[in-house]
Write a structure and sequence with these properties.
- The chain is of the alpha/beta class.
- 37% of the residues lie in helices and 15% in strands.
- It contains eleven helices and twelve strands.
- The strands form two sheets. Strands 1, 2, 3, 4, 5, 6, 7, 8, 9 and 12 form a ten-stranded parallel beta sheet that branches.
- Helix 5 links the parallel strand 3 and strand 4.
- The chain is globular, with a radius of gyration of 18 Å.
């Protein structure tokens, strides 16, 4: 192998990405670890905490999501949380080592009135000295400007899967809708958190095509969450064949190689991963996790379990703030 760490690129071909996936596992991990060490401390992991500030009754039909109003998942529908409850959750997250607090609302897109309430939450969390991230669905350009003025650090809006497989997963919004929201976020110089979900019955080619979409955006997302499908009873994807763990690790590694300056987050699905699988993901270049016993509505490992694993692996939580709006800045 030559030229293991290449310049930042936005012109990856599908054949190139397929070739990365096809490498012997050890060679791919070596390439990913080499890229990782160029821009990051290999033994540091950034910790984020995630809170559902408005749960259930979403009008979208995302086949993986228990919050969709179209599926009978027995999930309790809740109103937007009061500000004091959000503040306490953020305080708890900070005390447990989280440096970023993420808030998610089950909306297709926020109303201006609801957005004002979320902006108050953003200000409250920032006053605690934490980075902020929200995921609220689709945004207009004007709404994005208001979030920027509020000092929002990150906006999460995943592509979920490849353009070709997308229609099998979601019909209530288009792929272009997602790309348009990402463009609005980039235009305001808010850090982008954008990744996808694997294990939804997609092909190897779909996983490569998802990563191609992410890597060929005008800027690489500053944060790239790679989620393993959490199967919830009564959602359309319940009963889908479980993805081979080695294939999941390969996905992490390829993401690291083609987006070397991005933070790659080992996201949903960790509760179903062995500690050995998670260790391989960190070796493959994952350097962020969600921390806490619940991710929006699905289970996550307990904080003490994460810290015990970190201790065994010699990994330290990285509480330092960093903004990577420019790909020319060192991470």
């Amino acid at each position: 192998m030559t030229d293991l760490v290449k310049a930042i690129r936005h012109d990856w071909t599908l054949d190139e990405i397929k070739a990365l996936f096809a490498q012997p596992f050890n060679d791919l991990l070596f390439q990913a670890q080499t890229a990782h060490r160029k821009y990051f401390d290999p033994n540091a992991v950034q910790i984020s905490s995630l809170l559902s500030i408005k749960t259930g009754a979403c009008p979208e039909d995302c086949s993986y999501c228990p919050q969709s109003a179209k599926f009978e998942t027995e999930l309790e529908r809740e109103r937007l949380l009061p500000i004091e409850e959000v503040k306490q959750a953020a305080l708890n997250a900070k005390q447990n080592g989280a440096s970023r607090f993420c808030m998610g609302a089950a909306w297709r897109n926020p109303t201006d009135k609801n957005l004002d309430k979320v902006i108050e939450m953003i200000s409250t969390v920032k006053d605690l000295g934490m980075e902020t991230c929200v995921t609220l669905g689709m945004l207009t350009a004007q709404q994005t400007k208001k979030l920027k003025a509020a000092g929002l650090d990150y906006y999460n809006h995943n592509l979920d899967t490849s353009p070709e497989y997308y229609k099998e997963i979601i019909t209530t919004r288009t792929y272009q809708d997602r790309l348009d929201t990402l463009e609005n976020v980039r235009a305001e110089n808010i850090n982008v958190c954008c990744g996808g979900i694997v294990g939804m019955g997609e092909t190897d080619l779909d996983r490569a095509a998802l990563l191609q979409q992410l890597a060929n955006l005008p800027q690489h997302p500053q944060s790239v969450p790679i989620n393993l499908l959490v199967q919830v009873e009564n959602t359309p994807l319940y009963g889908t064949d479980v993805l081979d763990p080695i294939e999941f690790v390969r996905t992490i590694a390829v993401a690291r190689v083609i987006m070397p300056k991005s933070t790659v987050r080992l996201s949903a699905g960790r509760n179903d991963m062995s500690e050995e699988m998670q260790a391989l993901c960190f070796l493959a270049g994952a350097n962020s996790i969600f921390y806490g016993e619940k991710l929006l509505t699905t289970p996550n490992p307990a904080e003490n379990k994460d810290m015990e694993l970190f201790d065994r692996l010699g990994i330290k939580p990285n509480a330092e703030k960093h903004h990577e709006s420019s790909e020319t800045a060192a991470a």
